[in-house]
């Protein structure tokens, strides 16, 4: 992280390739650096030499009288490799490459980006970019952008892959303190940037704009640590198939599947935001409120309909509608009309019209915030009149007074009307409250605040369990046999790998003919199940390759012959190695356990509804391996299948602990075996007395 210090705190900066044009639409970096008030030494570099804006211009980097802490390169892309070599030869340790046309462009650009990395290898020099506007440090009046922007200082940081999030920080995060546009992330990326910014005391909230990431597992380690200290918000773009393609061409990044990013963020404590408005209001929320004792929210409103909207939003976000104490009810009832029942939401408009709106608002807030059963309050109030002209509706003094009196309980607002901006500015001036654009945004923000304070911040990290007694040699032998035979998919012997990994499997044997099938069935015990054995056939039922509940030798013999004939006709190119025979085990819940190797995060576990309906309902959850016990339970609870496992409509509850152990053992297996690219255990049958794998398929690479 020390290598990032000169990017944010340079005592001197070389601006290489600076334009000699100045004024509007010149996009001159030197102009922007000077306009920002940077107080360090500035060295413009341009082959023409001379002077520019009162500063001497140096023809080459070697002419600069000292070794600059930071070099900012904005030359044509073809000149960049030579300039980087010149900078490293001079001993410059921090380089920002503004220029585009590298991994974000054609094959030659990708090759030049590789050359840049070779140039700085073993030199101690770091690169931000290419394809970036660089860094912002408004605490020290530094920015390396070639475009002017509203420099609004705030206790936030931004790591992004598009300069718009630095230039538009006033809109997206309500301002900024420190920021870096990593661009193509050829060298400096999310991981070390997050680690560095996480240690800066001025930064209270860290924001990420992410198109893709390559070192996903290392990033998660850092994010787990940083998110326990301060909130980390991420706007992940490139979620759709079209968006993922655009992300790749824009920044040369690897875009993994979107649900994997969501799972990874959840595991490491990152709060995912869906749009820039949510990002803005979550920043305001975390910068304003430092406490929220619980989930119980009260609503004070001037409209019954608006109050119902707020209650709906509260429930939708996982918060609770607070129940007022008897003391609170009596105190409010004393000022409410006799015909009006005291409830949450509390409609104060009739009482306000009779006794004075500001007086009733203060009484109601003081009473409700004092209620030990209330953890936060949302106030719904109008902004129909200019607060300058009609102070009777200027609620800002009252609101800030109550917020100051009860700092441990968030006091939030939803106001509406023609003078909303003016009234919101008055109320937010003391940084005690946040005015939200809707009850939905208010409740979602409070829910995120609660989740961070109680579920993410200061949580105790748990290590994944390590199981002993794994038959590693047996697993290696099966995989080696598959490699030797040129197989990419393992079907029947996949169950043997699971068994060697400690996952219970249903006894099974392969029959080569009808006679063998009868002998095996009698040794296993009736009834039995028969499945076609072929490395080319994964979905056996699709080609008539499954028979269940066979009760005697005659049924087994007949089923064997019919199955082989049917499958041969429907899948003529498949190699049939016989028929797999297993005991028939009806009952229990059929679930899917699986794994897929993600390009960004490595092995990702999958859990969900199993059997023939897996792809139809897609009731699945994900987690990046390895996982601990709590993460395994979270995966199970996230799905609708969890209700079935608990015992639905009189059915006995399944052995969830056995299922958790299967997930944990699968996690250990795929983490230790990088050649396993994909795996499906479908179904894993979970009953009251345990879990057992019935069928499995493994893809190796």
What descriptors fit this protein?
701 residues; nucleotide-binding; ligase; CoA-binding domain protein; 38% helix; 26 helices; seven-stranded mixed β-sheet; seven-stranded antiparallel β-sheet; single chain
Q: In what range is the share of β-strand residues? A: 15-25%
Shape: flat
Total strands: the figure is 31
As residue ranges, the low-confidence spans are: 246-256
| Widest sheet: strand ordering | 9-8-11-10-12-13-14
**How is the main sheet built?**
7 strands, mixed
Structural class: alpha/beta
* Intertermini distance: 35 Å
**Could you report the average pLDDT, rounded to the nearest whole number?**
93
In angstroms, what is the radius of gyration?
A: 32 Å
Helix content: 25-40%
**Helical region count?**
26
Question: How are the SSEs ordered, and which strands pair?
Answer:
Layout: H1 5-8, E1 12-16, H2 29-35, E2 41-45, E3 51-52, E4 55-56, E5 70-73, H3 80-90, E6 94-97, H4 107-120, E7 126-128, E8 134-137, E9 142-143, E10 153-160, H5 164-167, H6 169-172, E11 176-181, H7 190-198, E12 205-210, H8 216-227, E13 232-236, H9 241-251, H10 258-267, E14 271-273, H11 276-288, E15 296-301, H12 304-316, E16 320-321, H13 326-333, E17 346-347, H14 349-355, H15 357-369, E18 376-382, H16 396-405, E19 411-416, H17 420-428, E20 434-436, H18 439-456, H19 472-484, E21 489-490, H20 494-500, E22 509-511, H21 514-524, E23 528-533, E24 546-550, H22 553-570, E25 578-583, E26 589-598, E27 602-609, H23 614-617, E28 620-624, H24 629-637, H25 641-647, H26 656-672, E29 676-687, E30 690-693, E31 696-700
Organism: Desulfofundulus kuznetsovii (strain DSM 6115 / VKM B-1805 / 17)
Pfam families: ATP-grasp_5, CoA_binding_2, Succ_CoA_lig
Protein name: CoA-binding domain protein
């Amino acid at each position: 992280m020390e290598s990032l210090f000169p990017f944010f705190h340079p005592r001197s900066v070389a601006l290489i390739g600076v334009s000699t044009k100045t004024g509007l639409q010149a996009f001159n970096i030197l102009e922007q650096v000077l306009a920002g008030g940077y107080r360090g030494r500035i060295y413009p570099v341009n082959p023409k030499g001379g002077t520019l804006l009162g500063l001497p211009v140096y023809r080459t980097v070697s002419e600069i009288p000292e070794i600059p802490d930071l070099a900012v390169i904005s030359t044509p892309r073809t000149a960049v490799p030579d300039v980087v070599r010149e900078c490293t030869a001079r001993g410059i340790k921090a380089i920002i490459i503004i220029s585009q046309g590298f991994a974000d462009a054609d094959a030659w650009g990708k090759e030049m980006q590789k050359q840049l990395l070779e140039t700085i290898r073993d030199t101690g020099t770091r690169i931000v970019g290419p394809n970036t506007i660089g860094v912002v440090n408004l605490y020290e009046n530094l920015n390396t952008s070639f475009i002017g922007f509203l420099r609004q200082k705030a206790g936030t940081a931004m790591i992004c892959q598009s300069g718009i999030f630095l230039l538009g920080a006033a809109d997206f995060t309500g301002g900024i303190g420190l920021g870096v546009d990593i661009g193509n992330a050829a060298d400096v990326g999310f991981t070390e940037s997050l680690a560095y910014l996480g240690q800066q005391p001025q930064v209270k909230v860290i924001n990420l704009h992410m198109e893709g990431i390559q070192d996903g597992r290392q990033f998660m380690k850092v994010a787990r640590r940083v998110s326990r200290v301060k909130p980390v918000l991420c706007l992940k773009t490139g979620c759709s198939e079209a968006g993922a393609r655009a992300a790749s061409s824009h920044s040369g990044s690897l875009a993994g599947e979107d649900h994997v990013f969501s799972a990874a963020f959840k595991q490491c404590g990152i709060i995912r935001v869906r749009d820039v408005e949510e990002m803005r209001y979550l920043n305001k929320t975390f910068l304003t409120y430092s406490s929220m004792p619980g989930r119980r929210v009260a609503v004070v409103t001037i409209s019954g309909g608006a109050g119902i909207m707020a209650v709906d939003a509260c429930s939708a976000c996982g918060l609770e509608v607070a129940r007022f104490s008897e003391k609170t009810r009596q105190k409010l009832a004393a000022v409410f009309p006799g015909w009006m029942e005291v409830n949450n939401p509390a409609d104060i408009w009739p009482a306000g019209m009779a006794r004075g709106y500001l007086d009733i608002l203060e009484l109601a807030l003081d009473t409700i915030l004092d209620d030990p059963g209330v953890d936060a309050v949302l106030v719904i109030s109008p902004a129909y009149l200019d607060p300058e002209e009609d102070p009777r509706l200027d609620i800002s003094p009252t609101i800030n007074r109550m917020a100051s009196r009860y700092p441990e309980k968030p006091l939030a607002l939803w106001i509406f009307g023609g003078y909303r901006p003016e009234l919101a500015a008055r109320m937010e001036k003391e940084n005690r409250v946040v005015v939200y654009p809707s009850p939905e945004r208010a409740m979602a923000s409070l829910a995120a605040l609660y989740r961070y304070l109680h579920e993410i911040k200061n949580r105790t990290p748990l290590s994944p369990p390590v199981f002993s007694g794994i038959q590693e040699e047996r697993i290696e032998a099966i995989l080696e046999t598959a490699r030797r035979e040129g197989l990419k998919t393992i079907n029947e012997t996949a169950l043997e790998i699971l068994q060697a990994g400690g996952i219970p499997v249903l006894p099974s044997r392969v029959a080569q003919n009808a006679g063998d099938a009868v002998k095996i069935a009698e040794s296993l015990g009736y009834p039995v199940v028969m499945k076609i054995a072929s490395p080319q056939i994964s979905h056996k039922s699709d080609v008539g390759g499954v028979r269940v509940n066979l009760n005697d030798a005659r049924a087994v013999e007949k089923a064997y012959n019919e199955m082989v004939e049917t499958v041969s006709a429907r899948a003529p190119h498949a190699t049939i190695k016989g028929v797999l025979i297993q005991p028939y085990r009806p009952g229990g819940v059929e679930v899917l356990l699986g794994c897929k190797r993600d390009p960004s995060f490595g092995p990702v576990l999958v859990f969900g509804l199993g059997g023939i309906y897996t792809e139809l309902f897609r009731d699945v959850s994900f987690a990046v391996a390895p996982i601990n016990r709590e993460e395994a339970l979270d995966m199970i609870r996230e799905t609708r299948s969890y209700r079935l496992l608990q015992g639905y409509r009189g059915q006995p509850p399944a052995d969830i602990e056995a299922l958790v152990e299967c997930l944990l053992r699968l996690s250990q297996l795929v983490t230790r075996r990088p050649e396993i690219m994909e795996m499906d255990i479908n179904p894993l049958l979970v009953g009251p007395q345990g879990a057992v794998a019935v069928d499995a398929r493994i893809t190796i690479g």
